[in-house]
Design a protein that fits this description.
binds NADP nicotinamide-adenine-dinucleotide phosphate, alpha/beta, single chain, K_chnl_volt-dep_bsu_KCNAB-rel, 8-stranded parallel β-barrel, 368 residues
Length: 368
C-alpha cells in the first residue's frame, strides 16, 4: 500500500488583492466594506467538502473580499459554518486577522429551550460566547440581532448589544430584517447610548424590493437607514440563485433548490422563470450575465441617496467559478435610464421574501 504524503503548500494570499475591489463607507462610520461580501449561510456546513470551502474563501480574500458573514445557526448542522470558517482562519488566515471583517448573529432558533431564540440578553450574550469559541476568536467585527423579537422589549436587546460592544466581544453592532420604524427607534436609542448601530442587513434584490416600499411613517427602510446613519448590506441579492442562469434549464442536482433548503421548488414557478428569462436577455444586452446584472443593480446609484446607499451586496457561492463570475459584476455598475426601465417592466415581486414574517412580527413600540 502506498500513501500520498504530499503536504499542501501553505496558503499565501495574492499580493494584488486590493487592486480590483471597491470599498464603500458603511453609513456614518469609519468602516469600509467591499462592494461584494461573502456569506456562509449555505455551502460552508459539514455537508460540503472542506477543500471546496477553503478554495472559495482563499479566492475571495485573493480578490479583495475582506468581509465574511456568518451566524450562530449557519450549517448544517447549526454552528458548523462557524467551526469550519474558524478552522480555515486558524490554519490559513491567522496572520491576516486585521485585514478581515467577520460578522456573526443571533436571533433565530439555535438551541432547545427558551434561551436559544429571540432577543433576550440571556440568548444574545451566551450565543456570542459560543460563536467566538467556534470561530476561535476573541471578538467579531460586527454582531447582529438577526431578527426582531416581538417577545423581548427592544431596550433589552439594545442594552445587550451596547454591553457586547463595551465588553470588547464585538467592535460594531447591527440589526437584520427590522422594519423602517423599528430601525429608526433602535438607531435613536443606540445613538443616545453612545453606541451607534453600524449597519442594517435586509434582503434585497430585483425581485424583492421591500426595502424601497414606504413603511407606516411613509419612510422606506433604505430612507430610514440613511437618515439614521446606518449602512446597508443587502443579503440574497441573487434571490438565492433565482437571479442567475442556474434554473433556466431545469433544477441542477447540486443546486440549493434540489437540496430542499431555503429555496423551495415552489419559488421556481413558471411565472418566476419566465421573468428570469426576460431579465437574462436584458443582462445579455448589457454584456453581463444575469447574476452580474442583479448584483450591479443592488449596488447602483439610488437617486438622492447616492451610490453608497447599499454599501455591500452579500452573496453566497457554491464554487470558485460562481464567485469569480459574481465579482466581475464590478466591471459595470452603471445603468442607463432605459435599462432600469426595462428591468422594472420585466420584474415583479417573486414572492421569495421568507423573512417578511419576522419583519412584520414587531413594529414600532410606541404603536403597539
Ligand atoms: N440576515 C439574514 O437573515 C440572512 C438571511 C439569508 C442570508 N443572509 C446572508 O446573506 C448571504 C447570501 O445569501 P444567499 O446565499 O441567499 O445569497 P444569493 O447570492 O442570493 O444566493 C447564493 C446562491 O446563488 C447561487 N449562485 C451564486 N452565484 C451564482 C452564479 N454566478 N451563477 C449561478 N448561481 C449562482 C448559488 O446557489 P447553489 O448553491 O445552488 O449553487 C449560491 O449558493 C448568506 O450567506 C448570509 O450571510 C442573511
Amino acid at each position: 500500500m502506498t500513501f500520498d504524503r504530499t503536504v499542501p503548500a501553505p496558503y499565501v494570499p495574492a499580493t494584488s488583492r486590493y487592486e480590483g475591489m471597491e470599498y464603500r463607507t458603511v453609513g456614518r462610520s469609519g468602516l469600509k466594506l467591499p462592494a461584494i461580501s461573502l456569506g456562509l449561510w449555505h455551502n460552508f456546513g459539514d455537508d460540503k467538502p472542506m477543500a471546496t470551502q477553503r478554495q472559495i474563501i482563499h479566492r475571495a480574500f485573493d480578490r479583495g473580499v475582506t468581509h465574511f458573514d456568518l451566524a450562530n445557526n449557519y450549517g448544517p448542522p447549526a454552528g458548523s459554518a462557524e467551526s469550519n470558517f474558524g478552522r480555515i482562519l486558524r490554519e490559513d488566515l491567522k496572520s491576516h486577522r486585521d485585514e478581515l471583517i467577520i460578522s456573526s448573529k443571533a436571533g433565530w432558533n439555535m438551541w432547545s429551550g427558551p434561551y436559544g431564540f429571540g432577543g433576550s440578553r440571556k440568548y444574545l450574550m451566551s450565543s456570542l460566547d459560543q460563536s467566538l469559541e467556534r470561530l476561535g476568536l476573541d471578538y467579531v467585527d460586527i454582531f447582529y440581532h438577526h431578527r426582531p423579537d416581538p417577545d423581548t422589549p427592544l431596550e433589552e436587546t439594545l442594552y445587550a448589544l451596547r454591553d457586547i460592544v463595551n465588553s470588547g466581544k464585538a467592535l460594531y453592532v447591527g440589526i437584520s430584517s427590522y422594519g423602517p420604524e423599528l430601525t429608526a427607534e433602535a438607531a435613536e436609542f443606540m445613538a443616545e447610548e453612545g453606541c451607534p448601530l453600524l449597519i442594517h442587513q435586509p434582503s434585497y434584490s430585483i425581485v424583492n424590493r421591500w426595502v424601497e416600499e414606504p413603511g407606516e411613517d411613509e419612510e422606506s427602510l433604505l430612507e430610514s437607514a440613511v437618515d439614521n446613519g446606518l449602512g446597508v448590506i443587502a443579503f440574497s441579492p441573487l434571490a438565492q440563485g433565482l437571479l442567475t442562469d442556474r434554473y433556466l434549464k431545469g433544477v441542477p442536482a447540486d443546486s440549493r433548490a434540489a437540496a430542499g433548503k431555503s429555496l423551495s421548488e415552489g419559488m421556481l414557478s413558471q411565472e418566476n422563470l419566465a421573468m428570469v428569462s426576460q431579465l437574462n436577455d436584458i443582462a445579455s444586452e448589457r454584456g453581463q450575465t444575469l447574476a452580474q446584472m442583479a448584483l450591479a443593480w443592488v449596488l447602483r446609484k439610488q437617486g438622492e441617496f447616492g451610490e453608497q446607499t447599499v454599501a455591500s451586496a452579500l452573496v453566497g457561492a457554491s464554487s470558485v467559478a460562481q464567485l469569480d463570475e459574481n465579482l466581475a459584476a464590478l466591471d459595470n455598475l452603471e445603468f442607463s435610464e432605459a435599462e432600469l426601465a426595462a428591468i422594472d417592466d420585466a420584474a415583479s415581486d417573486a414572492g421569495i421574501n421568507i423573512w417578511a414574517g419576522a419583519t412584520r412580527s414587531k413594529i414600532h413600540d410606541e404603536k403597539n
